[in-house]
Specification:
alpha/beta, globular, 7-stranded mixed sheet, binds pyridoxal-5'-phosphate, 395 residues
Amino acid sequence: MKLSQRITHLTGGGSDGWDVFYRARRMISEGHVITELTIGEHDIRTHPTILDAMDLSARQGNTGYAVVPGSDLLRDTVAARIQARTGQKTSRNNVLITPGGQSALFAAHVAVCDPGDVGLYLDPYYATYPGTIRGAGAKARAIQTTAEDAFQPRAQQIDAASDGAVSLLINSPNNPTGVVYSRETLNGIAGVCRDRDLWLISDEVYDTQVWEGEHISPRTLPGMAERTLVVGSMSKSHAMTGSRCGWVVGPEEVITHLINLATHTTYGVPGFIQDAASFALNAGHDLEEEIAAPFRRRRAQAIAILATQNTISLVPAQGAMYLMLDIRAAGLSGEEFANALLDTHAIAVMPGESFGKAAAGHVRVAMTIDDDRFAAALRTICEFATGLAESHAAE
Ligand SMILES: Cc1ncc(COP(=O)(O)O)c(C=O)c1O
């Protein structure tokens, strides 16, 4: 039987640098001890106080169908949070609660892309981006950023790629690069969106993990609240990846349509999860900082370790739970480096190539194991790269 192109063309085909990831998984399942630095998931679990709120809510009976747009409490809480961060008036009517940020990314694209429209995204990119745009029926068009420009996208490049486009997807703090977009970058992006009449889909799921500089939501910028859809999530800020709770924030008209979409797709998010999320968001900054603190510490460790060598250079690690290491001086591609590192030292990292073309010659290291093992792994990576660079130079 024929299947739809929408489903069969969702992924681009080919493994594109993911072989090493699957190989590491296989080795772990066969009993090998692998230092696993591939996945963007905390090494802690959801906080006990959040679990208590979830348990209480479920026991009080919130286990039936929940209201589709999200509970008033959670929508109000998210609206207040976004208003405090952007200075833009935001009410529950601007908020749809979704099963995680990924579902929000998909819904946002369905809201603004017709079949055949072009949806823009920036390379390097979070793995699901092109498939999400294609899944919404649009053509996914990548715009390359460069390591030399610290992976900050430039307005001119976006403008040059904008013919036929209806949307632009950005992500700051960024996965995989760890870069936080500067005000100058965001002003440039906003200018192109206004000139070219583009929707801006702003993935801000790492907005509580900012180590340097400031997180600026483009919803703040002049003329942008009416054309920006902000995607947020409880996954990274509150170590609630398995709870599947996120949101889209945007103009009321868009949210009204997205509520229809949710009615016909997800039918909402479980009430006890929403109550746990409301509790977590209202628990305040200290809890968020407690969850972000291990990454802040490990980033500082990494900077100190990397300062002792000069083979690997670090892409400015301003936010999120990853480090992007430029290993080009070692004379291998990111994929070759990651495979050799796995074989030689049983350390698994993601090749830059698995996030598109722009991060070739890099590897992404997730800071998601305990401090001592993390520091030891990073020292090994540095020694390994230096050894490779020396033998490369001797060739
Ligand atoms: C940049 C980015 N956006 C969205 C997501 C999806 O997060 P969620 O767990 O909320 O679906 C992730 C998850 O890793 C991510 O890295």
